[in-house]
Task: structure prediction
Amino acid sequence: MQQPNVKEFFHEDSSTWSYVVSDPETGRAAVIDAVLDFDSKSGRTGTGSVEEIIDYVREHDLKVDWVLETHAHADHLAAAPRVREALGGTIAIGEGIRQVQERFRKIFNFEKEFLPDGAQFDHLFQDGDSFNVGNIEGRVMHTPGHTSDSMSYIIGDAVFVGDTLFMPDAGTARCDFPGGDAAVMYRSIQKLFELPDETRMFMCHDYQPGGRAPLFETTVAEQKRDNIHVGGGKSEAEFVKQRNERDASLAMPRLIVPSIQVNIRAGEFPPPEDNGTVYLKVPVDTLGKPDDKPLTG
Result:
């Protein structure tokens, strides 16, 4: 199986992994889940983290064809527009983004000009679509459950799973966001487990359980055997019970309010108001529960 080069970048503030995936023969590349720096206390943005990705691409003389989002993230702001501005490439996400946009435009009461049609992105993938990174074939697998738009990208011998799975010692992502479903998540994971055991699997997040160093890569075989939430042949009923009980204890992600408003617009901010300033809204008594506990994952 073709093996792409994979370079990882860790955004410590949001515990997010971003990737540059490239074909060693042609130098064509894809950037996956790039992060925009955001200070929630001041509302200030920054591009320091994504500039590291841009510098790497330029230093290695790579040509970016794709800027991929695994889903509309709720824990960091996407930096896809900055990547496209600096390096080119097509910003793409799964077609399920339309459902996510429809749900959240109502929650945030977006401007009437905002349409939940996915047109904010350059390209919408459907389950089973193929694409290329140079001479390496890519394939898109719809893996909903965490969110309805969650996609995994299979590029050669590597798969990028977004928030569907964490490292084996951290389990799986939550399923209690609007459109999330633990049973659907279980079935998505079983689809991933049908990939060859040696497939390299790359995480979008690592919350470093037990204080260990951050990790980003495992294999399908390791996940099937060792994942604490879904490995070892755990049944769907067992997984759903455990996942739902855990989700009931979780707080909303720290950056869910700003990130959703930006990420369902393909990383763009809402239009400025009549004073020229861009604002992000905070819906009151709408998201989460008042007794949420500060747990993650």
